[in-house]
């Protein structure tokens, strides 16, 4: 039997485990990638100035408030690295595994806070954990793996309550998929929260997971700290060009958002007809409560060339997380899941 890694690299396998965009990237991004082939022997811009300028223009902020990185993963690592080893880093659980991964690997002190009973990041509990030793807080919104979000007013109240010496990282990797009007976007309010860093990525809705491009928005002082410790050429020329072109194609983002909403609703209706519970999601994945252990279901699906997330990585023994995909792949998953349960 092939390993999970081999299956993950097999194009015939249905990958509902990585939250990739089934529509792929925009045509403009593809053309931008091709345009860089004749320049592959040349180093890229050290500071991704063109991409930073495009992001600044897109969000109507100054370029000094923009940082670009080798995916959000690199930026998360830099933020942890930039936090004193004597300081505590608070993060929700279950949430994006890279928070815990970087805290452990960089020898920092982590403090995890469980989600609420309705699978949201518990801001009240996190606020209660803040003390003189707190240096950094991670908030994933929408939260991965549950897809839940915070209400705008609640998040504003939380940010106001956090001492300015504590940096708050608002990880919005799935920002483009959110349709709720009461969602806190924050990029137009950076001046109100000098200790806030917002993370976004080109890996999800923009369909560029393979080139690794992410970015941070925040106070120029915080951005400067990241620039001091990043690698010299941390974003390759293909990533810079593709991300800049993708940003200009918001029609593709709108299409992806509408596609995701339609297929997500379709999946939830069918899953609920099976007697399963879907946690309301504002992302491109669904957290599904299961009667059997999630790892057992995931193992059976893997035998049928379908990959989903389950087990410790999503923090719930009786759940799976599935990516919203095409109708054909969604139907295949539903048929196989029905047979398994």
TrEMBL record:
<dbReference type="InterPro" id="IPR001917">
    <property type="entry name" value="Aminotrans_II_pyridoxalP_BS"/>
</dbReference>
<dbReference type="InterPro" id="IPR015421">
    <property type="entry name" value="PyrdxlP-dep_Trfase_major"/>
</dbReference>
<dbReference type="Pfam" id="PF00155">
    <property type="entry name" value="Aminotran_1_2"/>
</dbReference>
<keyword id="KW-0032">Aminotransferase</keyword>
<dbReference type="InterPro" id="IPR015424">
    <property type="entry name" value="PyrdxlP-dep_Trfase"/>
</dbReference>
<dbReference type="InterPro" id="IPR050106">
    <property type="entry name" value="HistidinolP_aminotransfase"/>
</dbReference>
<keyword id="KW-0028">Amino-acid biosynthesis</keyword>
<protein>
    <recommendedName>
        <fullName>Histidinol-phosphate aminotransferase</fullName>
        <ecNumber>2.6.1.9</ecNumber>
    </recommendedName>
</protein>
<keyword id="KW-0368">Histidine biosynthesis</keyword>
<dbReference type="GO" id="GO:0000105">
    <property type="term" value="P:L-histidine biosynthetic process"/>
</dbReference>
<keyword id="KW-0663">Pyridoxal phosphate</keyword>
<feature type="domain" description="Aminotransferase class I/classII large">
    <location>
        <begin position="12"/>
        <end position="336"/>
    </location>
</feature>
<comment type="similarity">
    <text>Belongs to the class-II pyridoxal-phosphate-dependent aminotransferase family. Histidinol-phosphate aminotransferase subfamily.</text>
</comment>
<comment type="subunit">
    <text>Homodimer.</text>
</comment>
<feature type="modified residue" description="N6-(pyridoxal phosphate)lysine">
    <location>
        <position position="204"/>
    </location>
</feature>
<dbReference type="GO" id="GO:0004400">
    <property type="term" value="F:histidinol-phosphate transaminase activity"/>
</dbReference>
<dbReference type="InterPro" id="IPR004839">
    <property type="entry name" value="Aminotransferase_I/II_large"/>
</dbReference>
<dbReference type="InterPro" id="IPR005861">
    <property type="entry name" value="HisP_aminotrans"/>
</dbReference>
<keyword id="KW-0808">Transferase</keyword>
<dbReference type="InterPro" id="IPR015422">
    <property type="entry name" value="PyrdxlP-dep_Trfase_small"/>
</dbReference>
<dbReference type="GO" id="GO:0030170">
    <property type="term" value="F:pyridoxal phosphate binding"/>
</dbReference>
<comment type="pathway">
    <text>Amino-acid biosynthesis; L-histidine biosynthesis; L-histidine from 5-phospho-alpha-D-ribose 1-diphosphate: step 7/9.</text>
</comment>
């Amino acid at each position: 039997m092939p390993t999970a890694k081999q299956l993950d690299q097999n194009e015939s396998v249905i990958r509902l485990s990585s939250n990739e965009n089934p529509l792929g990237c925009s045509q403009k991004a593809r053309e931008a990638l091709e345009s860089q082939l004749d320049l592959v022997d040349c180093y890229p811009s050290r500071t991704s100035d063109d991409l930073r300028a495009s992001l600044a223009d897109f969000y109507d902020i100054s370029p000094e408030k923009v940082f670009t990185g080798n995916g959000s993963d690199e930026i998360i690592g830099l933020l942890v690295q930039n936090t004193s080893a004597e300081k505590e880093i608070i993060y929700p659980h279950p949430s994006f595994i890279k928070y815990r991964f970087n805290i452990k690997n960089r020898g920092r002190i982590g403090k995890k806070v469980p989600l609420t009973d309705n699978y949201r990041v518990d801001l009240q509990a996190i606020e209660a954990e803040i003390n003189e030793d707190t240096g950094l807080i991670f908030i994933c919104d929408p939260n991965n793996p549950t897809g839940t979000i915070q209400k705008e007013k609640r998040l504003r109240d939380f940010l106001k309550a956090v001492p300015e010496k504590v940096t708050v990282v608002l990880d919005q990797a799935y920002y483009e998929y959110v349709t709720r009007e009461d969602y806190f976007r924050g990029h137009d309010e950076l001046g109100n929260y000098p200790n806030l860093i917002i993370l976004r990525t080109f890996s999800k809705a923009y369909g560029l997971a393979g080139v690794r491009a992410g970015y941070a928005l925040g106070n120029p002082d915080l951005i400067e700290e990241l620039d001091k410790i990043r690698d010299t050429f941390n974003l390759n020329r293909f990533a810079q060009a593709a991300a800049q072109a993708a940003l200009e194609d918001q029609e593709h983002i709108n299409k992806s958002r509408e596609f995701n909403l339609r297929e997500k609703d379709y999946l939830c209706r069918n899953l609920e007809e099976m007697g399963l519970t879907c946690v309301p999601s504002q992302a491109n994945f669904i957290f599904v409560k299961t009667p059997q252990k999630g790892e057992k279901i995931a193992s059976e699906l893997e035998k049928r060339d379908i990959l989903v997330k389950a087990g410790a990585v999503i923090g719930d023994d009786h759940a799976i997380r599935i990516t919203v995909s095409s109708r054909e792949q969604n139907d295949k998953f539903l048929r196989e899941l029905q047979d398994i349960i």
